[in-house]
Amino acid sequence: MLDAGYWILVASIQYLESSIQKTIKMKYHLFLLLLLLACTPQKSEDITTVEKLKLEDIQLENLDGKAVDLKQFKGKTIFINFWATWCKPCLQEMPSIEKAMQQFENGEVVFLFPSNETTEEIIAFKNRRNFPFEYVQVKNLEVLNFYALPATLIFNPEGELIFSEMGMRDWSTPENIAQILNGY
After folding, report:
1. Which of 25, 49, 79, 92 is surrounded by the most beta carbons within 10 Å?
2. pTM for this one?
3. Where does the pLDDT of residue 100 fall: very low under 50, low under 70, confident under 90, or very high at 90 and above?
4. Quick one: angle between helices 88-102 and 174-182, nearest 10?
5. Do the beta carbons of residue 55 and residue 160 sit within 8 Å?
6. Average pLDDT score over residue span 79-96
C-alpha cells in the first residue's frame, strides 16, 4: 500500500503539469492576439489625430536600391499604400486598388506600394502576383508610427497630407475614388 507522501507527490506533479499547460496556452493565445492586432482592418482615423507627415519624411528606394525622390511627383496626387507579404488584409485590399488605378490612367495620381521587407521578398511577391504596382522599399517605416497594416497615405498635388488610414478598405467604390482625389 502506498503512503500519503506518494499521493501528495503525484498530486503536486499533476498540479504543476496543469499549471504549465495553462501557461503555455495563455502565452499562445497572447501571441495570437498580438498577431491579430498587428494586421487588423481598422476604421479610418481623422487626419487631426494622426501626426501630420510630410513627403520628405518618407524614405523610399526602388527595387534597384536607388532613392525615390517624391518631389518628382509634384503636381500629382500621391497614393502610398504600405503593405507586407504576410499581411492578409493587405493582400485582400490589392485587387480593389488595382481597380481604382484604372480610373486614373491619365497619370493624375501616382500609386506607390512600399514594404519594409527585403528587396528579394518584394520581387518574389511581385513575380507571384499579377498586380501592375510600383513596388518600392520603405527605409524608415518605424518613424512613421503605423500600428497596423495596410496603411494608406494620400498627398494632394501640393504635397500636403490629405488622408491617412490604417486598415483595409475597398478602394474601387465611387466614394473611395473620390477620397483618392479629395482626401475626404
Report:
1. 79
2. 0.73
3. very high
4. 80
5. no
6. 97
- CA 115 – CA 121 distance, rounded (Å): 10
What are the strands, taking DSSP E only, across the chain?
A: 60-61, 67-68, 77-82, 109-115, 135-138, 151-155, 161-166
Residue 81 gets the label, from left (phi > 0), alpha (psi -120 to 50) or beta, of beta
CB 115 within 8 A of CB 135: yes
Measured CA angle at 72 (ends 135, 84), to 5 deg: 20
Q: Residue 27 pLDDT more than 80?
A: no
Sequential DSSP letters for 61-112: E-TTSPEE-GGGGTTSEEEEEE--TT-HHHHHHHHHHHHHHHTTTTTTEEEE
How confident is the model at residue 22, as a pLDDT?
73
Q: Assess whether pLDDT exceeds 70 at residue 36.
A: no
Calculate the CA dihedral of residues 56, 63, 145, 168 and round it to 10 degrees: 110
- C-alpha to C-alpha distance for 50 and 75, rounded to whole angstroms: 24
Rounded Cα distance between 95 and 130, Å, is 10
The grid coordinates of residue 101 equal 488605378
CB atoms within 10 A of CB 69: 10
Task: Round the average pLDDT of the chain to a whole number and report it.
Answer: 85
- Tell me the sheet residues that pair with 154: 79, 163
Give 45's DSSP letter: P
What's the length of the chain?
A: 184
